[in-house]
Amino acid sequence: MSGPSPQGPNWSQKSEDEEDPLDQMILRTGCATFHYAVQECMAEHQDWRKCQQQVQAFKDCMKEHQKQRMEELQKRQMLAQAKS
């Protein structure tokens, strides 16, 4: 029998136009190229130990993004405090 299951909708099925929330988040960081490199390496080697260079590059990019984000949040807090 095809169609939706009686338990409810199948949330794992997505339309082709629908973006994965994780992919959207990574795109906003500017680290998507590094993320895709990790995915490609994993698909090729099926062993994360062989992808350490790609994993480290992605980790470094995300760390830098988080640092910049924290600095921006701190600036906003300082501006908000100065106005009050």
TrEMBL record:
Superkingdom, natural source: Eukaryota
From the Swiss-Prot or TrEMBL record, give the protein name: Cytochrome c oxidase assembly factor 4 homolog
The cross-references to InterPro entries, in alphabetical order and at most eight, read:
Coa4-like (IPR039870), Cys_alpha_HP_mot_SF (IPR009069)
State the organism's lineage.
Eukaryota, Metazoa, Chordata, Craniata, Vertebrata
The biological processes this protein is annotated with in GO are: mitochondrial respiratory chain complex IV assembly
Polar residues: compositionally biased ranges:
1-13
Would you name any one GO CC term?
mitochondrial intermembrane space
PANTHER family linked to this entry: CYTOCHROME C OXIDASE ASSEMBLY FACTOR 4 HOMOLOG, MITOCHONDRIAL
Q: Where is this region: Disordered?
A: 1-24
Species name for this entry?
Answer: Gopherus evgoodei
